[in-house]
Specification:
single chain; 345 residues; alpha/beta; Rossmann fold; 2 domains; six-stranded parallel sheet; 13 helices
């Protein structure tokens, strides 16, 4: 299937495929929109089953970055990259350097950073080949703590709007995926007095949360997460968790987490609204990491970056209030607000 025919192709400015035989690199870089500035987005290293699956993921993720940057008030566009490889067994230094050369060939239209399966060390290798990289040693580094902080701020906005609570103290929150971002999120929520329920495919990650935060584990079956009887569902693993199978079992009043593309399809935002579930649009609530890595490319000082991160609370509140006033799902309201920013430029 041609890229133009994929359902998730959305007037992307550039979709580039790269292969380096010597290192084994097979990668796709997508630039969705650069009206506000160069496209910045992470590199996901994942063993996709097919090339079409990889292309679909990079199209969806890059579009999300355009909307994320716009809603975060950053002079950046949206891009993303994927490397088709197992991050644990196939990723090599030569592969990451080859990825750096691929990024450099785009002449600055795309700035790469970390994502699932890639690390600060990988970005350091990429820096050997191109200046168009963020999240390196001596720079922003790992954006996970900032992403988690922003999600914690966003959960605060959601529980204030939906539950009338000024904090998460005493609330039951289920976190699906407690790796880098999820663990830091649990730290924030635990310090604020939430009762935590956690799951992950990594047993060590679960045990760490049990030990450090007194968290309660639950069934790792994804279906079990969406049916949890809690105040907040915080998906922090991979996307498309809200779908035709899970919407009917959701009873939690709030869905707010770090995962990208939480809604399998746009119509699922309306499905949640019809159930009375408040959904915090993913690319708004998880923008903390982007703000962190962007500050080194936009010459923002630490205080200015912190203000933008804390502004996630106000941005989400505005989305929730507009959603109530217009009778539209929060996902569609967020899209409309983002498009008002990046399409008007």
């Amino acid at each position: 299937m041609a890229v133009f025919d994929l359902p998730d192709f959305d007037q992307h400015e550039r979709v580039a495929f790269f292969q380096d035989k010597a290192s084994g690199l097979k990668a796709v870089i997508a630039v969705h929109n650069s009206n506000l500035g160069p496209a910045l987005g992470g590199c996901r290293v994942w063993k996709y089953a097919t090339d079409t699956e990889a292309a679909t993921d990079v199209l969806r993720l890059s579009k999300g970055m355009t909307y994320k940057a716009a809603m975060a008030g950053l002079a950046l566009g949206g891009g993303k990259s994927v490397i088709i490889a197992d991050a644990k067994t196939e990723k090599t230094a030569d592969m990451m350097r080859a990825m750096g050369r691929a990024v450099d060939s785009l002449g600055g239209r795309y700035i790469i950073a970390e994502d699932v399966g890639s690390t600060v060390a990988d970005m350091d290798l990429i820096r050997d080949e191109t200046p168009h990289v963020s999240g390196v040693t001596g720079g922003a580094g790992d954006p996970s703590p900032s992403t988690a902080h922003g999600v914690a701020v966003g959960i605060g906005a959601a529980v204030k709007h939906k539950l009338g609570r000024d904090s998460v103290k005493g609330l039951k929150i289920a976190v699906q995926g407690v790796g880098n971002v999820g663990h830091h999120l649990c730290d924030w929520l635990h310090k604020d007095g939430a009762e935590l329920f956690v799951t992950d495919i990594n047993e060590d990650a679960i045990r760490r949360c049990e030990t450090e935060f007194g968290a309660t584990r639950f069934d790792s079956d994804p279906a079990a997460f969406w049916a949890m009887d809690v105040d907040v569902l915080a998906p922090c693993a991979l996307g498309a968790g809200v779908n035709d199978a899970t919407v009917p079992v959701i009873t939690a009043p709030v869905v707010a987490g770090a995962a990208n593309n939480v809604l399998a399809e746009e119509r699922h935002g309306e499905a949640l609204r019809q159930k009375g579930v408040l959904y915090a649009p993913d690319y708004v609530i998880n923008a903390g990491g982007l703000i962190d890595v962007a500050r080194f490319k936009l010459d923002m000082d630490l205080e200015a970056a912190k203000k933008k991160l804390l502004a996630i609370h106000g941005t989400l509140t505005a989305i929730f209030e507009r959603s109530d006033a217009e009778g539209q799902p929060t996902s569609e309201v967020a899209d409309a607000m983002a498009e008002e920013r990046f399409l008007a430029s």
